[in-house]
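lol ok so funny story. i was supposed to be doing the assay writeup but got distracted and ended up predicting the structure for this chain instead. priorities right. anyway since i did it might as well share w the group, maybe its usefull for someone
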Amino acid sequence: MIILVGTALLALPAASRDGKSCGLLIALFTATSTTCVTGLALVDTWTQFSGFGQGVILMLIEVGGIGFMSVASMLVFFIRKKASFSQQLLMAQSIGTDDIGDVLRVQKRILYGAFLIQSCGAIILTIRFCQEYRFFTALKLGVFHAVSAFCNAGFDILGFKEPGTSICCYGTDAVICLTLSALIILGGLGFLVWDEVLRVSQPKKWSVYTKLVLLTTGLLIIGGMILLSVIEWQNPKTLGEMSIFEKLIASFFQSVTMRTAGFAGISQGDLTEAGKGISIFLMLIGGSSGSTAGGLKTVTFIVLLLFLWSRVCGKEDACAFYRTISHKDILNALTIFGMMIVLSFAGTIFICACEPVSFIDSLFEVVSAISTAGLSTGITASLSVPSKLLLIAFMYFGRVGLLTISLGFLRTRHSTDQFKYAETNLLIG
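and the output, tada:
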């Protein structure tokens, strides 16, 4: 419903800069991409949309990023109405916690923390933009990009400098890149991780989940930065013409943003084939559960690695921080991984059959959509209608959550098997 309302508003003539409707397809694609905090776009946001249209986009990003149930919780707080048990259950499910009795306190922390972090980011960006623009222009740029970064949306309004290039014009600006990176990381860690880190001062007492999120996030950022630096160091179209400091800033920002944010500090279409491969891998993993980010999720990824390692070592159980990971969690991780891989390759083959584009560029676009990363090699606007509709479906599917959908189907069937067939032995591998 939010996507449909956003589509209707963005299709209005008042939402476009030239006073003419942008059309149903562009409005639908943009509303889906903003609500699902993806970042893929058919048109440049600043060039196409007026101040009203940009305001609609900003609101859709905020609602989609913080979460629909968190927005509903905000309304409950404002009208001071006591939430029912079923409402508290929905709120708990939306942020991935089983602690129903404490969900309202957690939701308050989420809302206060989210707006505090975004406000701090907006202030820093506004001060930086004040060096180039008038105050109100700088404030608009600071607020819009702070919200877009924290919600991992990747939309920008810098098209007045060079349409369609995202923030490439500031790709080596340390203040802007590091501020946006901090907002992206905090938004992608997950609300429950914030809550635990704030409540528990001693890292040793953090839950296994929080430890895995922080460890995996750090390894992916540093590992991605190193790999991209090595691969793209001499590429004249990306990092090759920069100084050493600028290369480090640009590769760090690329490693952070490519997992779910969608900002482009360097041209994604000019990456080497190996660089695109690293980007696809990181986009597929995404951020953490219960956050503004999409993708496979960091803990899902590390659970798969731990399970594979345990099987290679001949062990039945996978362990982390002296705790055994349940077989149910491993099966859920395998399920969502299998679904993402199948959908990614099926979507890639579909686009390759419809468009004159390479397999790697098609895969890049599809993974970007289903993981809600939002980065593009530049082919999105040139795709045909069927391919654009496929990306719309994948953005929606990726934001709702593959595991949420699969568990939703499973929970509707409570019947148990009345019998079990005899086991058979197969040759595996």
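Residues 327-354 form the longest helix (28 residues). The radius of gyration is 22 Å.
back to the writeup now i swear
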